[in-house]
Amino acid sequence: MNSYAALLRGIGPSNPQMTNDKLRAVFTGLGFTDVGSVVASGNIVFRCADTDVPALEDRIQEALNAELGIPGGTIVRSREELRALLDSDPFPGLTHSRGTYLIATFFKALEAPAEIPDFDDPLARVVGVDRAARAVLAVVDNSVGKTPDFMAWLEKQYGKDITTRTWLTVQRVVKKMG
């Protein structure tokens, strides 16, 4: 059995159709095992025999839309991909805080861009692209009144088949995967 994490886009925990118990029920209904949720923002871990990740993403998204009316995006990563991303230590010496808000933006595409154009805001900077995990890694300064709209900028550059997680959430997801 393969261990995966589904990173769901557009989940609003206050929406009664998007609660963790309902999300887990969809995954269990698909025949997946060891289904669990991490944080109330659309991070579901599970096990299954499937190895065709794009087909798995489509299958999950179709079920979420049919059963809960969630049209958003489903991005799946294996435990190995996420573990390798964590082990690469892309934020050396940095600790997640308001001044150094560490984020990873995952691409649904089979490849992440080789490099990201400069984001013209001193409060956010791209620190790298992890091609294997298909993720862009960035640091955002949320300690001042005006927060840079880095995620909207990424969406404008690359479309809606992306989703962003804090580095702490990525760590929690991998821990939950065992």
UniProtKB/TrEMBL annotation:
Coiled-coil regions listed in the entry: none
Short name of one Pfam family: DUF1697
Protein name: DUF1697 domain-containing protein
Protein source organism: Nocardia mangyaensis
